[in-house]
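It is worth pausing here to work through a concrete case rather than discussing structure prediction in the abstract. The textbook approach is simple: state the sequence, then state the predicted structure, then interpret. We follow exactly that order.
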Amino acid sequence: MTCRKFTVWFLFLLITPNLLAHPHLFIENHVTIVFDQNGLAGFQYRWVFDEISGASYIMDYDSDQDGSFSGKELAILKSEAFDNLRDYNYMSHVEINGKTFVVKYTTDFLASIEDNKLVYQFFVPCHVKAISSSKKIILSVYDDSFFVDFSLRRDTFGFVNNASFQVKHRIFQNTQKSYYFDQLHPIEIELIFSK
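Step two, the predicted structure:
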């Protein structure tokens, strides 16, 4: 390889991650931590797509263009534009006391159109029984490939049915973890709870 060709190839390698880092979808992630009588029950997500990227989904799946998804339209959208997220753990990165938790399914999926934006709502079951000693859960939602840029809406973050438990939490950027060519760091929700 000539010196000139090597230089061009080397420069390409340097700039390629930055070129690829351009996300194609932007999603605001609203998270509610849900408890039941036994402890942690799971995570309620509300994903609000940006108006531009959501418009193509609306055009494709609101076939009668009436501004809402009928039962049939919703079933097709779920099958073609949501169920495949199972292969990506529904973009959820969860640890229970340091061990990885795999999201095998979700429940209560609903898609709607609000202010010309596509909105997904669904529940991620993650049952962790509360005991007298503390348990630690880490949750972050991001796309390793950075095709989708998720932002956590801290102003809507909250809890449901947590009054019977001792619960502490913090939200922080974990600079000890990285993804996408080590350029990005996840925003994590750290949850510590006990009876």
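Step three, interpretation. The first helix runs from residue 3 to 20. Confidence is low (pLDDT under 50) at residues 1-19.
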